[in-house]
Amino acid sequence: MQKEECFFVGKVVKKYSFKGEVLIKLDTDDPELFLEMESVFVELHKTLIPFFIESSSLHKSTLLRVQFEDSYSDEAAMALIGKELFLPLSFLPPLEGTKFYYHEIIGYTVEDKSYGKAGVITAVNDHTAQHLFVINNNGREVLIPINDAFIEAIDRDAKIIKMDVPEGLIEMYLE
To answer: Of 66, 89, 153, 166, which is most buried by a Cβ count within 10 Å?
Structure first.
């Protein structure tokens, strides 16, 4: 499995017991969705390795407590701390309406109600307090906050996101 075919699930943040259990900080608003996982890919030495889950439960409602098969020692748990976990994109349920996954909207055209065609989404910057669409407008970068109030519709067939952003926001980048 290639990393491009997967999405980031979370990261092992610490060990839970001396029997190899670990705690995973999930990258989700709905951790219950991940209670039924049978396996997960762990990135080791830039390679995704499948790890099979023997048991899992929510810990303090935000962390996932996991016991991996064949990982029953303190040393095994310590070796996983800090490792990133991935699942195949096919694990994600399809979204409707104005809900979307960041990876799915790369390549979509942004059309603003006032400005018109703002450009094509090349990336999503989620390393800031306010996540941003990174848009290419004829070689110039435009950043638009990802805000439910700005997104009017998503046409998945035509790969278009229709927005109504504050007046002057797009022009600010193009002057």
So the answer is: 66
Which helix (H) or strand (E) segment holds residue 171: the answer is helix 169-174
Closest CA to 67 of 23, 34, 13, 30: 23
Chain centroid to CA 55:
24
Task: Tell me the pLDDT tens digit for each residue of 137-174.
Answer: 999 999 999 999 999 999 999 999 999 999 999 999 98
Model pTM above 0.90: no
Q: Which CATH number fits domain 102-174: 3.40.50.1980, 3.80.30.20, 2.30.30.240, 3.30.1120.10?
A: 2.30.30.240
Q: How far apart are the first and last CA of the chain?
A: 44
CATH of domain 3-91: 2.40.30.60
